[in-house]
Amino acid sequence: MHILLVASAFNSLTQRVLAELQDRGHTVGVVLALGNDDEMREAVRAQAPQLIVAPMLTSAIPEDIWRAHTCLIVHPGPPGDRGPSSLDWTLQGGAESWGVTVLEAVAEMDAGDVWAWSPLKVPPHAGKSDLYRGEVADAAVDAVLLAVERFASGRHKPQKQEPAALAAGWRPFMKQARRRIDWTSDTAEAILRQLRAADSQPGVLDELLGAQWYLHGGHPEDELRGDKPGELIATRAGATCRATVDGAVWIRQLRPWREPGSRLPSYKLPATEALGELLPSTVPEVPAPLELPAGRRTFSDIRYSEQGAVGVLNFSFPGGAMSTAQCRRLLEAYRFACTRETSVLVLGGMRDFFSNGIHLNVIEAAEDPAEESWANIHAMNDLVEAVLGTTDRLTVSALGGNAAAGGVMLALAADEVWCRDGAVLNPHYKLMGLHGSEYWTYILPRRVGESEALRLTQSALPVSAKRAVELGMAERVLRAAPEELGDEVARLAAELAASPDFAERVARKKAIREQDESLKPLQRYRDEELAHMRRNFFDAREPHAGLRSAFVRKERASHTPPHIARLGLAD
Fold first, then answer.
1. pLDDT in tens, 274-308
2. Dihedral of the CA atoms 315, 318, 322, 326 (nearest 10)?
3. CA geometry: angle at 69 spanning 67 and 74, to 5°?
4. Burial of 62 (0-12, 13-18, 19+ CB in 10 A)
């Protein structure tokens, strides 16, 4: 069947729905709803879809389209739930169960007949964006696939909305007044609920050190305490710790508030970097140990643990972006992990993003963005090189969520890549005007071949976990819920360490690396890639700086990008 996706952005859910439908043999086109209804009408005319699906839509489909075509809308709530801030209200209220509904477009928002819906469990500590890319996306895909199957049968009649027991009816857009934190009375748990319900957008507007900021990301703290609620009491790896009436919370990122209509930049940065000179020198940096004791509740973006012959190096960076400092800290942790007497070393193994490569926001905010880009790409390369050079054990990249650009190459540097079935990979740099580095010219072709590597990097389209295995980019698809991923990875890694051919595999790996090095040293791949990247970063005629700025500032495109607009037309 030919399906047209209509979406407000080519976001993670839109990409996943696209990939999942393609995996099942459907041809799929995409048009972005960017305020130009005529462009949408032209896409419908050109594509002549049998069905229209809207995975993520913040505006209405024109009436003449939904009257002429069946249009299915994905709503992140159970039947009967309506409104634009469904997940915000759900997390703020502490709900344990929720759902996703696929309903037919009608004149009234979220009021159409139901084609399918799927329930989900809300994990207790996930933020909104993490929940959206995890449990919500899983439920959305299940519901979309069922709705498409029902539509294709020609026999199914959608049902009038009968509110599910957990539905809340119509709820309005959640404004900042409803998100406000009262540091003088709110408990740490209440503050964390507010932060999780606003992560990663729009954040919680608050005052700190005499300035207005949107707070992003909240983590509990079980030991540090302060004298005055709301005061800064510590920093750690770019995050800030603030006292509450009954404890403390960590906040990872800040975004400055700007006057409406202001042209001044306002984008998220690590909290300490955003504060800059406002941060008092008396606030101490309190590192967390790499190996946290069981039961600790504190913020730590890099953790190491061991289970028998398996070492696990977990890392989690907001948005999957890895700054120069984060890359260097992760490399230091990786080198430590390699000193341990383990047989298998797992990278990742957590829910949400694996890595999206260099940190464009930190680069954009730097005094010299080109120099910071250069430092960041070298730090990413050092990390990837360390993984490629590990020949005394087997390495596994466990992707609980999405990866892109250099983050994909970091994953593929390991001996095996295991992807949760909801992960989407974007193995390209083209949309940022970059040639790419991280040894991709060595890593990608050795897995998929030269011609496929060229196609993947030039088409700039997402790859599902299932397709990644078919292409040779990954070895396993893990069918586990986001909260269950860690246990499943640990079990499989233990099996790998105990496999009868383990020693033979390690010896073969070492021999292959030595042979590859003799044919063409890794340093040559690095030098060749960086010659292109230096031009991308430092030459004012190159498009990268403008593309980076637009991306960081979330500038809205005026038209559907050509590489997406062509989808479905060439099939």
1. 999 999 999 999 999 999 998 899 999 999 999 99
2. -60
3. 100
4. middle
Q: By C-alpha distance, which of 551, 514, 566, 539 is closest to 405?
A: 551
Tell me: the pLDDT tens digits for 199-249?
989 999 999 999 999 999 999 999 999 999 999 999 999 999 999 999 999
Residue 165 pLDDT: 67
- Residue 278 half-sphere exposure, CB side, CA atoms within 13 Å? 16
Q: How far is 446 from 440, CA to CA, in rounded Å?
A: 10
CA dihedral angle for residue 104, residue 105, residue 107, residue 113, rounded to 10 degrees: 10
Is residue 402 within 8 A of residue 424, CB to CB? The reply is yes
Average pLDDT over residues 88-104: 96
Q: What is the DSSP letter of 60?
A: P
Q: How far apart are CA 402 and CA 422, in angstroms?
A: 8
pLDDT for 425-437, tens place per residue? 999 999 999 999 9
Instruction: Please state, in angstroms and rounded to a whole number, the distance separating the CA atoms of residues 251 and 183.
Output: 14
| Other CB atoms within 10 A of residue 324 CB | 21
- Interatomic CA distance for residues 239 and 243, integer angstroms: 13
Q: 181-192 burial, b if ≥16 CB within 10 A, otherwise e?
A: bebeebebebbb
